[in-house]
Design a protein that fits this description.
Layout: E1 4-7, H1 12-62, H2 69-109, E2 129-131, E3 136-138, E4 145-148, E5 152-155, H3 164-200
Antiparallel strand pairs: 1-4, 2-5, 3-4
Length: 221
Amino acid sequence: MTNLLFAFAQINAENTKRIFYIIFLILIIALVVLSVIGYGIIRLTNHQGKMLDRAIHDPIKKCRIIKDQKHFMRYAIKKNKLLFFHQAMIPVLIMLGGTVILLLYCAIGDKWGYNPWSMNNGFGSLLITWDFSTIITINPGDAKGILINWPKISHVPHFDIHNWCGYIVGICYLVGGLWYLYTVNGLIGRTLRILHLRKTIFEKSLEGFNLEDEPLDSQPK
């Protein structure tokens, strides 16, 4: 990639514009990325919230065992907790399995200072990292100005079978952790759904009703 050098000897107004455009572009990209991530989280939360409807549909609509709003809240909250417990059991067991493997590895090899995320002998050896401290350089060499450079690669991924413990533990923690966050998102989504249904499920509403559209023979005498 080509470096960008903004020399102090050049016209200050032109340099200021270029720097402003670069900063503005970075901010726009960051806002777009954050917006996409936020939109995805909201959609996922709403989708998981509606899964509560399937869990409480039959007792409420078919069996009619829910009598009032307080009864609904107690039943829905209890059902939500049970769903979270069942969904979170597997990711928690995966993370516990990774912890057991790590403890056995440290105990057998007497390596209690071992870091499973290490860049040298752990899961980190599979990652690529950048040195962001080299992005901006003031007065590089003999030139007076600001040098904007692309970050340098500080670590190149490599696989080493001797790092097997870090690989297994890292995968267990990543998979289990992301899976657990997914279940927490479901808990939040269903909780929000409960609060919404609490206000509408026993609500007597004439929304969308038009008396003129009702046939006369269907009206009470």
